[in-house]
Write a structure and sequence with these properties.
2 copies of one chain form a homodimer. By secondary structure, chain A is α/β, with parallel strands linked by helices. Chain A has 11 helices and 18 strands. The radius of gyration of chain A is 23 Å and the shape is globular.
Chain lengths: 407, 407
């Protein structure tokens, strides 16, 4: 019998009717003999409602208490879904993250899973029970409630799948799979049947918002077969696989175009050059749990260096504050910032065996008068930072240039 | 330094503004040097909102899942109150019932506390931290969430006060103390400064709805000084004490009149008489967690007996179903029911030393043409069951007859 972890996000459980639909879906899968663990998010809107309550009380509420507060959102959903499953005659039990021993570190609101004891879940599965688990949450070694940050329910699902050695982890979303790029930007964008985990990792981390990066990393680490499907319509979705076989020459030039609008760029200028400058600047930023993305260091003048990097726009202000202190501490000249940038990336394992991929990208952008502010490359992707207002034009022209609609 | 447990109900924390007011109140108490544990209920309306969601999904939702669902109500409040306390510069930490080891039995939705480990709370108090605990909830030995039933937050507060040996447990409510009777029925009703726990127990169990019976039982068992106060205005409230000293002849004839409207009466008629009839009838009723109140057994005819008892009206239908089966099993004749009855009781330790108290009650009711359906007495109370429509008249005329407005 297949053991499956299925994850439904906030929109999929956003109303009593949607919860009933999910229960009916699970009942059908049960009838096929699948052993099922369901991971659910808070009903859509609920998390924001709770956050608004907190902000009515405090400008910067305690992260510990925020986690106590917003973890109730998923707890409501698990109970309701278990009740709905009972109505379909399906044995089901709900558990909070803490109850199924999802142990995390102590970083409230952005905790990382350190361990899961899957025994309780396996016992229930052996007892023909569907196990409904609250996504997005766990508890630290003191038993205090923690949350994994936005999108953390995907990570919960993958981590549970790894812990109980599930045959597949299915993430139900509001899209029917992974596309060559955002169909809202490029109407001819095409659903991919399969994508390697490596490519998906680049796509996810680059802002293809279907799956949270950490969940793909987790899946990749434990080789959990991961499938992205629509919760609203039937279909095969996109399978994220670990199969490195097949003729690489057969692979398409690139698999997709990822992009990210909400980025900001910061430059700290004329830092007196010394060993470890990048570490001294980025250490404090990282300690504030801000994810730095593209980094460029450039010795502008003898004895001095400039360091430029991008961060998610919501972290911009906090990051700027840190740099202002660093200008003083390191004796740098000043800071320059740009809050209206976007990142556009082409991704594909095909790059390994095809040459000229980056060149075609730069040529296409040049032909469309798009100015490249920063470039970053990896083995299977090329990213450029551009002005946010040219985001759509860049994605559309690249999709055409790489003939992604054709495959 | 005094160690105090303070409990605020749903109305007292019913909005962000009310939560701020509670936080301000606690901050003032902290400034006076009190060590404080706060127990809170769900924001008013929240529990009903959650119950409505459940009933949209299921006519009789699983009690286990109901407890997972509605326990989120208090969890939201504890986090918000802790945040509000931080804004007043007060160190505070929130805990769910499970997190502070409030161990209960397995009766979902009506669980009873079996044990509390107060160490974590004491550690926090020693660290100058206000401890905010979710009322109404705990967890069983498997770590599954349980709730204590309506009003259970009072019980949580008293049980915590007993566990940490607090100097006083203060229950903040929407009234400013215990009254001689319901002021909505008798405008001249008067607030009592003090009442013995014994009297309070009779008042509470008889439906003076200010405090939940179980909380008073708990307080009485562990001799926790309990004070009922208004959360909206300053005042001394009513202290529930264990002082049996003083001249009993000085005590007023009765202390108060308790009444309960939502009762129902059931009679199972002509049961073939045999030892243990009451046990055979009431055993299954009790097993269904229905609280039987007044019980009368009467051998109506040689060889047969009638058994009449009252139950809370919400349990009436379930109870009737049980009796219908028992009529068959025991070979009884039939069932008679009355769903529109009320109970009115006079309560007072003064009864012990004064005679004629019951007589004055019966005389007063007779003068007002109120028909008594059942009578039940204890050492410090006399209760009568009457038609519900005569409830107000009975309470008003008794309050006058016993001159309760005068003391």
């Amino acid at each position: 019998m297949l053991t499956i972890v299925e994850k439904f996000g906030g929109t999929s459980v956003g109303s009593v009717e949607r919860i009933k639909a999910v229960a009916e879906h699970i009942a059908k899968k049960r009838a096929l003999g699948e052993r099922i663990v369901v991971v659910v998010s808070a009903m859509s809107g609920e998390t924001n409602r709770l956050i608004a309550l907190a902000h009515d009380l405090s400008e910067s509420p305690s992260p510990r208490e925020m986690d106590v507060l917003i973890s109730t959102g998923e707890q409501v959903t698990i109970a309701l879904l278990a009740m709905a499953l009972h109505e379909y005659g399906v044995k089901a039990k709900s558990y909070t993250g803490s109850q199924v021993s999802i142990r995390t570190d102590n970083v409230y609101s952005k905790a990382r899973i350190v361990d899961i004891d899957g025994q309780r879940i396996v016992d229930d599965l052996n007892d023909d029970t569907v196990v409904v688990v609250a996504g997005f949450q766990g508890s630290n070694e003191k038993g205090e409630i923690t949350t994994l940050g936005r999108g953390g329910s995907d990570t919960t699902a993958v981590a549970l799948a790894a812990a109980i050695k599930a045959d597949e982890c299915r993430i139900y979303t509001d899209v029917d799979g992974i596309y060559t790029t955002d169909p809202r930007v490029v109407p001819e964008a095409r659903r991919l049947d399969r994508i390697t985990a490596e490519e998906m990792l680049e796509m996810a981390s680059l802002g293809a918002k279907v799956l949270q990066t950490r969940s793909v990393e987790f899946a990749n680490k434990y080789k959990v077969p991961l499938r992205v499907l629509s919760s609203f319509e039937d279909g095969p979705g996109t399978l994220i696989h670990y199969d490195q076989e097949g003729d690489p020459m057969e692979a398409p030039l690139i698999s997709g175009i990822a992009s990210q609008r909400d980025e900001a760029k910061l430059t700290i200028r004329r830092i007196p050059d010394q060993p470890g400058v990048a570490h001294k600047v980025l250490g404090p930023v990282s300690a504030a749990h801000i994810n730095v993305d593209v980094i460029i260091q450039n010795a502008s003048e003898k004895g001095f260096t400039d360091l430029t990097f991008t961060v998610p726009r919501p972290d911009f202000k906090a990051c700027k504050k840190i740099l202002e202190q660093l200008v003083i501490d390191l004796g740098a000249q000043d800071i320059r910032t740009d809050e209206e940038i976007a990142k556009v990336s082409i991704v594909g394992v095909g790059m390994r065996s095809h040459t000229g991929v980056a060149h075609l990208m730069f040529q296409t952008l040049a032909e469309n008068d798009i100015n490249i502010l920063m470039i970053s490359t990896s083995e299977i992707k090329v990213s450029v930072i551009i002005s946010e207002e040219q985001h759509d034009l860049a994605v559309q022209s690249l999709h055409r240039a790489f003939e992604l609609h054709k495959f």
